[in-house]
Automatic annotation (TrEMBL):
<dbReference type="Pfam" id="PF00749">
    <property type="entry name" value="tRNA-synt_1c"/>
</dbReference>
<keyword id="KW-0547">Nucleotide-binding</keyword>
<feature type="binding site">
    <location>
        <position position="46"/>
    </location>
    <ligand>
        <name>L-glutamate</name>
    </ligand>
</feature>
<comment type="function">
    <text>Catalyzes the tRNA-independent activation of glutamate in presence of ATP and the subsequent transfer of glutamate onto a tRNA(Asp). Glutamate is transferred on the 2-amino-5-(4,5-dihydroxy-2-cyclopenten-1-yl) moiety of the queuosine in the wobble position of the QUC anticodon.</text>
</comment>
<dbReference type="InterPro" id="IPR020058">
    <property type="entry name" value="Glu/Gln-tRNA-synth_Ib_cat-dom"/>
</dbReference>
<feature type="binding site">
    <location>
        <begin position="10"/>
        <end position="14"/>
    </location>
    <ligand>
        <name>L-glutamate</name>
    </ligand>
</feature>
<keyword id="KW-0648">Protein biosynthesis</keyword>
<dbReference type="GO" id="GO:0005524">
    <property type="term" value="F:ATP binding"/>
</dbReference>
<feature type="binding site">
    <location>
        <position position="250"/>
    </location>
    <ligand>
        <name>ATP</name>
    </ligand>
</feature>
<dbReference type="GO" id="GO:0006424">
    <property type="term" value="P:glutamyl-tRNA aminoacylation"/>
</dbReference>
<feature type="binding site">
    <location>
        <position position="132"/>
    </location>
    <ligand>
        <name>Zn(2+)</name>
    </ligand>
</feature>
<dbReference type="InterPro" id="IPR014729">
    <property type="entry name" value="Rossmann-like_a/b/a_fold"/>
</dbReference>
<keyword id="KW-0436">Ligase</keyword>
<feature type="binding site">
    <location>
        <position position="102"/>
    </location>
    <ligand>
        <name>Zn(2+)</name>
    </ligand>
</feature>
<dbReference type="GO" id="GO:0005829">
    <property type="term" value="C:cytosol"/>
</dbReference>
<dbReference type="InterPro" id="IPR049940">
    <property type="entry name" value="GluQ/Sye"/>
</dbReference>
<comment type="similarity">
    <text>Belongs to the class-I aminoacyl-tRNA synthetase family. GluQ subfamily.</text>
</comment>
Length: 312
């Protein structure tokens, strides 16, 4: 983030269904952060994964946000309309030797990892072993199925950054993720590239999103660095957990957000963010009172979390 840059934040839901309680927490936090900084709040519909998108869900999500008094400051942006911008970014990465074609199937990757003694984690993917890297075996005459970005190895791959809520964070990028996909074998754009392109072109200075996405940050910062774009600041919010102890999500059957009483929904979301004491008899009154309460919450996080300088 450039010093003195006007604040621009965003909420970026995937239209795979209506908002649920967890997604309202992220939406509310991003809106409050923008308002607390006197900035702009945008909404971006992240619909590049078209097979998972539900027809009409984007319209429903915008209606749900409006019911809760969360109105964007500019017309929403749809990722599905922006393939040319993602292609331009990929072309740059290919030209500078950062991106390369990959011919591996999932079974190829699983087999290579098995030979290395690696086991797939319960929540996550196997680390790509680098088979098709130009400095490894390359494509060996095979046609590329997907495009990957090479990540730095060893000490250069030890990524450090500071989260505005969580404090100093680190990830050994090559060991935790490996070279990651930016265009999938089915021709669809991967989330990591699309979000980086859109954040840069929309001038996003601050990303506020759920804590489950924190481990995406090094990949996105690496892409930002390779494309010559500034890093936004990041703040990852607490998660809403389901009865089974897992993060509440559409994938594990989270119920659609009940908005017959939007004020109650906001209060519940606010409680997750530590704003239980906020009072207000209407949606607008509650939101107005929540803005200074959010500023106080930010000050609390800033004073309690240890700080570290980023080397990214």
């Amino acid at each position: 983030m450039s010093a003195g840059a006007p604040y621009v934040g965003r909420f970026a839901p995937s239209p795979t269904g209506p908002l649920h309680a967890g997604s309202l927490v992220a939406a509310l936090a991003s809106w409050l952060d923008a308002r607390a900084h006197g900035g702009q709040w945008l909404v971006r519909i992240e619909d590049v994964d078209t097979p998972r998108c539900v027809p009409g869900a984007d319209t429903l999500i915008l209606q749900q946000l409006a019911t809760c008094g969360l109105y964007p400051d500019a017309p929403p942006l749809w990722q599905s309309h922006r393939g040319d911008r993602y292609q331009a970014a990929l072309d740059r990465l290919i030209a500078q030797g950062t991106a390369y074609g990959c011919a591996c199937t999932r079974s190829d990757i699983a087999r290579a990892n098995a030979e290395l003694g690696r086991i797939k984690p319960r929540h996550g993917d196997l680390v790509y072993p680098g088979t098709c890297r130009p400095d490894h075996t390359g494509l060996r005459g095979r046609a590329p199925r997907a495009w990957r970005v090479s990540v730095p190895q060893g000490a250069a791959g030890h990524w450090l950054w500071v989260d505005r809520r969580l404090g100093p964070q680190s990830q050994q990028l090559d060991e935790a993720v490996g070279d990651f996909v930016v265009r999938r074998a089915d021709g669809l754009w991967a989330y990591q590239l699309a979000v980086v392109v859109d954040d840069a072109e929309q001038g996003i200075t601050d990303v506020v999103r759920g804590e489950d996405l924190a481990d995406n940050t090094p990949r996105q910062m690496w892409l930002q660095q390779q494309l010559g774009w500034p890093h936004p600041r990041y703040l990852h919010t607490p998660l809403v957990m389901g009865d089974n102890g897992e993060k509440l999500s559409k994938q594990n059957g989270a119920a659609a957000l009940a908005l017959d009483d939007p004020l109650d929904a906001l209060r519940r979301a606010g409680a997750v963010l530590g704003l239980s004491a906020v009072a207000g008899g209407t949606v607008s009154e509650w939101l107005g009172a929540a803005i200074p309460a959010w500023r106080a919450r930010l000050a609390c996080w800033a004073s309690s979390a240890p700080r570290a300088e980023t080397i990214a």
